[in-house]
Amino acid sequence: MELLKSPLHEKYQASGAKLINFAGWEMPITFSGLVEEHEAVRDSAGFFDISHMGVISIKGTNPKEIIQKFFPTNLYSITKGQSCYSLLLNNAGGIIDDLIIYDLGLQEKDISEIFLIVNASRYEADFEWLSKNLNNNNIQISNAKQSNALLAIQGKKAYEYFEEWSGYSIKHLHNFGCEYQPLKKFQDCKKIFISKTGYTGEDGIEILLPKNLSINLWEFLLSKGLLPCGLGSRDTLRLEAGMHLYGQDLNEETNPYEAGLGWVVHLENQHDFFGRESLEKISQNGIKRKLVGIKVLGKAIARKGCEIFHENKKIGEITSGSWSPTLKEPIALGYINTYYAKSNTEVDIRIRGKLFKGIISKRGFYKKNY
What we know:
Elements: H1 9-14, E1 18-22, E2 25-30, H2 34-43, E3 46-49, E4 54-60, H3 63-67, E5 82-89, E6 95-108, E7 111-118, H4 123-134, E8 139-143, E9 149-154, H5 158-166, E10 178-181, E11 192-195, E12 204-209, H6 211-223, E13 227-229, H7 231-240, H8 276-285, E14 289-296, E15 307-310, E16 313-324, E17 329-337, E18 346-351, E19 354-361
Parallel strand pairs: 3-13
Antiparallel strand pairs: 1-2, 3-9, 4-7, 4-8, 5-6, 6-7, 9-12, 10-11, 11-12, 14-17, 14-19, 15-16, 15-18, 16-17, 18-19
Helix pairs in contact: 2-7
């Protein structure tokens, strides 16, 4: 089966990218090198092609009321120009996907629009789950990405580079703010989706735009000395920031409370949603395992599936792990028995047949200081 390609695929080859199969897409794992790309984002800014991700448009009269049943988060907690992180759940409270919901407000007459940006590996499952359970003729669900590209500029200087390129100030947008409108600088420019979101722990902006403009932006950023960044640095950046990766830290067998995502579950809102009954029981009875951060002592990398022990008793498994270019030490995420999930608890991790010491820590290993 032929791999899907981004509208920016030709730019990968010109920039010397190393390509891999990621969720059925041919995507760059690195350009100049993982550590160099990682440090560029932490120090100043870097940019990513994230066109593999899904963008689902939901249109209708008051679409929030109709799609509220899919999400444990109160959708009325955001208004036009705002977004929120949430989860798509099954009936058992398991996580079908984690995603960001963007409220674009009224777009034409009485029709409002909502964007969902979802994981590449879950786009088809998400779209099918939504379509199968909508049961409403007054709502339109579609692929909003079409042939457009999705780009992310991340880092403390991300906003100023975007503003210089676009000739448009985004100072009025707060963190997790979004807009959907043309850029006057570019002739015949249709609506561009802009959001102050990202997946690195830094300031960031994500832009959905036509192929010709995405190439223009790519070349502009290169001319300014910014590095294109691949999936490798994207993973180390998100891991340092304690952000989940679907398929590793989250799946349909995981519930929000185990994953440390209970804050997106608004049981107090009283709205009905898929998985509510299951989550009510879990919130009353407690959880048996919990996702924690782990600092590994030494230089061994704890990868997904490595077993975690305490006094020779297996208490969990690693879900994500890597060397941290910022902290200069190995870090990991893993699910362990809640009894042992206190910070500074010492554990042993079996890596390639040998045991290495680890220390339980907060999931967010890095936090920006600006």
